[in-house]
Amino acid sequence: MNFYPIWPILAVFVGLFWLARFRLFAAADTPPTQQVRRLQTIDGLRGYLALSVMLHHAAIYHLWLRDGVWNVPPSRTYTILGTGGVAVFFMITGYLFWGGLIDKRGRMDWARLYLGRLFRIAPLYLFAILVMVVLVMMHADWHLKVPFGEFLNELAPWLALGLLTSGDLNGHPATMILTAGVTWSLRYEWIFYLSLPILAVAAGRGVVRTAIVLVVLATTFYLTYLGRFYFLSPIELTFVTLFLIGMACASLDRHDRKPRINDTAASSIVVAMLAILFLTCSSGYSPRAIALLGISFYLVISGCTLFGILTHRASRRLGNISYGIYLLQGLVLAVLFQSQIVRSFALVSPVRHWAIILLGSAVLVGIATITHAWIERPGVVLGKRLARLLPTTAPDKIPAVEAT
């Protein structure tokens, strides 16, 4: 019995695209007063990346329910969905923030930038951790199974916004699974943000800047192919390469080095690239997958809309709530499968398992929309208000950049 069919992927993408069209999800729209210079194709892409990661974890949940094993699913397709989704998220971060540095020629107002990042990431993150703590305490019948001081020591890494490695909490086995372990990627996002002042040194050097990025990218890609580089592990080297791909795309974009092809041709190429990816790669982190995803991403930032899908309002709504989809997916899945009745039902057949996932994905999008309107967006607005109180250390206003 195949528990990893293709139809759930289409059902989730098409079903949620159809659902997001309704006015019920208008709260996910960006208010006119908060409009900034944005690339609509990236906005539309984010939601599908977050949903891809959710589908990856939904596939893992079958193994978890059946064998108590949390590992990559024995399915090339569902493995690529998760790893490829995170890979492109890292490219987006590299593209947006390196592009911001280029626009400012490296002269950023760092206090305002980091304050903005803090209020972009922290509010929803802390909400997710609060829900996780509630689930842990409910499982323990609201009793502490460890001394209070030890409980606080266990909780502290979870409150570090993804920077620290977190373990089990209050004796709850595999606490990480409550969040589907998604907070690990925030650590690498923070490392990239903290590296920006160093990168800024090369941001104002025109053609030389682009040459430097392309040479470093070629070097790291080759080292990724070899699988070693001194103090960096192979996976860390891969992540560096992914950020550099985004940076290279930003450099080429600022020099107007975009492919001169129409949207239909570009969209067809991206579809072909994705087909090759899923047919020939075993992970989104392999050198071949990185190359295929990098080329596809370059076409997307150059205006490829995937036949109009990425610029559709429904896709942009899903993109606006992508952080919530990404961060809250584990909690929704954990609550769904907490019931023994649901667990038993899901283990009977692939149809039942994925029917529950389809229902859960709709619930997830609804919750992500609510938290976007009531937690994420107010947090961003508060961060901007506090930033305006800081003394300006850069000559111009910092470009508004959004990253998940």
UniProtKB/TrEMBL annotation:
Database matches in Pfam families: Acyl_transf_3
**Cellular component annotations (GO), alphabetically ordered:** membrane
InterPro entries registered for this protein in UniProt: Acyl_transf_3_dom, Acyltransferase_3
Positions of the Acyltransferase domain: 41-367
* One GO process term, biological-process aspect: polysaccharide biosynthetic process
What is this protein called in UniProt?
Acyltransferase
* GO function term, MF aspect, one: acyltransferase activity, transferring groups other than amino-acyl groups
Q: Which UniProt keywords apply?
A: Acyltransferase, Membrane, Transferase, Transmembrane, Transmembrane helix
Q: Which residues cross the membrane?
A: 6-26, 47-65, 77-98, 118-138, 190-223, 229-252, 264-285, 291-311, 323-342, 354-375
